[in-house]
Amino acid sequence: MTHRSLQGYLLAAFLSILLPTQGLAKLPPRAQRAADAYLRELVRVERSEGRLSIEPLFVLADSLDDAFFPSPPGNFQWTVQAVADYTAAHSVEGLSETELDSLQTALRGVNIFVGDYVFTYLDTEFFLSLAESHGLPADLDFLKAYAGRYLGSESVQDCVHFGTDLIVNQHGVWRDFRARHAKDYVSFAADEDQNVIGQLMGTCACGDSASVESELDHFLQRFPTDPIAPQVRARLASVRSGASEVTFNCPPPHYN
């Protein structure tokens, strides 16, 4: 889609709030297609008179990260100039601050972060509100679970907070969702639950061995027949015997 047609669509989409689009920069082709597809679906949802699935919109929102910040190909030559050229041609990271602000304003429901790391993430409150007003029960259940998936760690490199039952409870939330809505948000729910399991089987514990024992034991009490239960039992036994791979009171990473 051309820059002119994207601007025209954005103007139509946000005419109700008089959003100016003249300052919206031309995006890299892949990013432009992804943004337009997301906004088109958003308007379709918001204008719907009846209830409909929000999942297609969620899928498009989730795809924006790869479209906005694509990884270079495998044979990429990692030089300063090559990275600068690739970023300018393919990533919204190459936009000016003003242009990024304009893009961010247009993309309601999705936040863009450009700093030491670059990524997009969903505004869960926005999507929850959309599900409440336009979505189906599966949308609302999924987005409630998605909004509550915080497990106590700010980074994938952080230690794991055992002994709070956050992990146990989150696994229960995703188990319940997958049981009630087996055909909805299948890959997303599976990935979120797998992340929970990855935390449960983590080897860098923020606290002592008692906190790890508590979380593992509560998991087995609540989910004794879970597919992962045999591994959890083995981990619990190894923690109790002092032979586990878990580092207790694991220090957080130090960033330069």
Describe this structure as you would to a colleague.
- It is a single chain.
- α2 (29-47) packs antiparallel against α3 and α10 (209-222) packs antiparallel against α11 (229-241).
- This protein has 2 domains: 3-128, no CATH class; 148-241.
- 56% of the residues lie in helices and 4% in strands.
- A two-stranded antiparallel ribbon has the order 1-2.
- It is globular.
- The protein has 256 residues and is mainly alpha-helical.
- The relative contact order is 0.09.
- It has 11 helices and 2 strands.
Question: Oligomeric state of the chains?
Answer: single chain
How can the largest sheet be summarized? Answer: 2 strands, antiparallel
Give me the Rg, rounded. Answer: 22 Å
Order of helices and strands: HHHHHEEHHHHHH
Brief account:
The chain is mainly alpha-helical. It is built from 11 helices and 2 strands.
Secondary structure elements and pairings:
Elements: H1 3-13, H2 29-47, H3 55-68, H4 80-90, H5 97-106, E1 110-114, E2 118-122, H6 124-134, H7 137-147, H8 166-180, H9 186-200, H10 209-222, H11 229-241
Main features:
4% strand; single chain; 256 residues; 2 domains; 11 helices; mainly alpha
